[in-house]
Amino acid sequence: MQPRHSSGRIALLLHRAVQITMLKTQVNGDRLWQSLMDLARIGATDKGGVRRLALSDLDGEGRALVCRWFREAGLKVTVDRIGNIFAKRDGADPSLPPVVSGSHIDTQPSGGKFDGNYGVMAALEVARTLNETKLRTRAPYEVAIWTNEEGTRFTPVMMGSGVFAGAFELEYALAQQDLDGCSVQDALQRIGYAGDAQVGGRSFGAYYEAHIEQGPVLEDMGHTVGVVTGALGLRWYDLVLTGQDSHAGPTPMRLRKDALLGAARIIEGVNRIALDGQPDARATVGFMQVSSNSLNVVPGTVRMSVDMRHPRDEGLDAMEAALRALADNVATAIGLGAQVTCVTRYAPVRFDAGCVTAVREAARKFGYRHSDIVSGAGHDACYVARVAPTGMIFVPCEGGISHNEIENAKPEDLEAGCNVLLHAVLASAGMAA
Ligand SMILES: [Zn+2]
């Protein structure tokens, strides 16, 4: 005779069954790779990269292909007024805010196949896996494609996610023009992605973005997954040293006001400021204009850039103070004028502790070698983090090279990152028994 189960016991058994299915669930790495390769054909370059500038005809083609895949996966597609695309899979409880994952599919002029595209394809692969395994999440799940992350055709960078997060106004973004005078609004209309949904103003249960690291750290450590805890803050400075142009022959060494000599000491000092702040600090002099820039003239003026990055505001403040002191000391010693102006600043980003833990736990569950990492580059997730609990997953890319046609990543690493994404999404969205 069959034992009679109470409905509570049946519910418990069902819940266990769901948990076991969930524990075993893995994405299809081959399908993920194939989708990346198929998408990379649109705007493919001779050297194996991709050129698909934001809101170009090719971007339109890429969007159309991915939206077709969304619909084939049963997702409901909406487009907002800045052209961000959201593809929704219903959850058991429609009153819950969606758990969202995505990235961008626009590329650099000579970009690679993986930057951004991986985050969107991984998020789509999560939806396909949920469909295949018939897993039902409690919260809805959405895949997002953010408009114009790269910012090469239209500035500012991370435009779609920036407007979504309220970093800048919609009207301002729509009015931005490319070098030919074409506005974002016109470009959106041309390719058919000037949507009518309101930009932002709704909450996410969580946002996850998978991305190639774009740096060499994971590869160097032999790790498969980076648990991204936040992103470096950034400050850019214009530094002008003013001395005096004078003849290289008649002017004795002790009577010179050599601005380039000052610049040399500042480059060395800027490097030292970063070295003194290891492992967090980064500082770079990447641009310089020398005047008169003539073989036999003591240089009278140098204009240079300083790029400083640190994961904490206090760190950036300390670096800025050190830079100003350095410029003063160098200028006094050589008899120069020194002017330091901060021209751009982004505050450091700290991702949500719950999302970071979900990513770390998922990596642990699969036994992937992983470590905490801070993003050195900006991502859509950095803006989304202002309005939603956010986490990121990094996977290694070959030689740490990105924004380059030779950008490359291993299928097994991409699959691992996608498995981590799947389980982080499940942890946040919850399972319907
Ligand atoms: Zn990117």
Describe the protein's architecture and organization.
It is a single chain. With 433 residues, this protein is an alpha+beta fold. The chain contains 13 helices and 16 strands. The model has no long low-confidence stretch (mean pLDDT 96). It binds zinc ion. Zinc ion (ZN) is lined by residues 104, 115-116, 149, 211, 379.
Topology:
Layout: H1 7-24, H2 29-40, H3 57-72, E1 76-79, E2 85-89, E3 99-103, H4 117-132, E4 141-145, H5 159-164, H6 170-175, H7 184-191, E5 206-212, H8 217-221, E6 225-231, E7 233-242, E8 246-247, H9 259-275, E9 282-284, E10 288-291, E11 297-298, E12 301-310, H10 313-334, E13 337-346, E14 349-350, H11 353-366, E15 370-375, H12 380-384, E16 390-395, H13 411-429
Parallel strand pairs: 3-4, 3-5, 5-16, 6-15
Antiparallel strand pairs: 1-2, 2-4, 6-14, 6-16, 7-12, 7-13, 8-11, 9-12, 10-12
Helix pairs in contact: 2-4, 2-13, 4-13, 9-10, 11-13
The structure holds zinc ion.
